[in-house]
Design a protein that fits this description.
The complex is a heterodimer of chains A (about 120) and B (about 120). By secondary structure, chain A is mostly beta strands. Chain A contains no helices and eleven strands. Chain A has one domain: Immunoglobulin-like (Sandwich). In chain A, strands 2, 4, 5, 6, 9, 10 and 11 form a seven-stranded mixed beta sheet that branches. Chain B is globular and about 40 Å long. The chains are: A mainly beta (about 120), B mainly beta (about 120).
């Protein structure tokens, strides 16, 4: 595809439900990042993959958050037992650069807006 | 502690005017300072970035001014146009690292810019 694709675009969940958010990175991009953007805030880092390896998950706010990228392309961010404070836009970004150290080649998707009621 | 402070929170500028957004940072180890533009419903897109070896960088109507001693940098948009209306985020990192941790990409809270026709 032409860019980073995320689905669903919007997700409404009842508190306590599990949700799964999908990211299709740009083809061939080895690095993949997830960010959380709360209303009126800048994005905050959640986790980083290089191919299928999750090299950094220091930003995941709790053990209810889990991310995977089993074949080194599509990634899924799963949130278990959602809480109201999980409401945010979840952004995925990919980069062709191994190690994620060239921010100028980082491309963001449009995000999934999660609302937990 | 907020590592990157951005102001103003919102800004209204007349068409053709100059838009100025300011950021201040705490971590003196930061060595990469990008600005992102985000339209409603879209992910952030890199606009322009600077490293501390120069005091100014210009790309078209967009200029970053950097003051290392004051730990401040700013975005100037010349001849502002209605199409520039968006939210602008400054950010900082060490080594252009897009991920987390102390080196990671740290965003300001954003400035909502409106250009009036």
């Amino acid at each position: 595809g032409a860019g980073v694709s995320q689905s669903p675009r919007y997700k409404v969940a009842k508190r306590g439900q599990d949700v799964a958010l999908r990211c299709d990175p740009i083809s061939g991009h080895v690095s993949l990042f997830w960010y959380q953007q709360a209303l009126g805030q800048g994005p905050e880092f959640l986790t980083y993959f290089q191919n299928e390896a999750q090299l950094d998950k220091s930003g995941l706010p709790s053990d209810r958050f889990f991310a995977e990228r089993p074949e080194g392309s599509v990634s899924t961010l799963k949130i278990q037992r959602t809480q109201q404070e999980d409401s945010a836009v979840y952004l995925c970004a990919s980069s062709p650069i191994k190690g994620g150290t060239d921010n100028e080649k980082l491309f963001f998707g449009s995000g999934t807006q999660l609302s937990v009621l | 502690q907020q590592q990157v402070k951005q102001s103003p929170q919102s800004l209204i500028v007349q068409k053709g005017g100059i838009s100025i957004i300011n950021c201040a940072y705490e971590n003196t180890a930061f060595d990469y300072f990008p600005w992102y533009q985000q339209f409603p419903g879209k992910g952030p897109a890199l606009l322009i970035a600077i490293r501390p070896d120069v005091s100014e960088k210009k790309e078209g109507r967009f200029t970053i001014s950097f003051n290392k001693s004051a730990k401040q940098f700013s975005l100037h948009i010349m001849d502002s146009q209605p199409g520039d209306s968006a939210t602008y985020f400054c950010a900082a990192s060490i080594g252009a690292w897009s991920g987390g941790g102390a080196d990671g990409l740290t965003f300001g809270k954003g400035t909502h810019l409106i250009i009036q026709p």
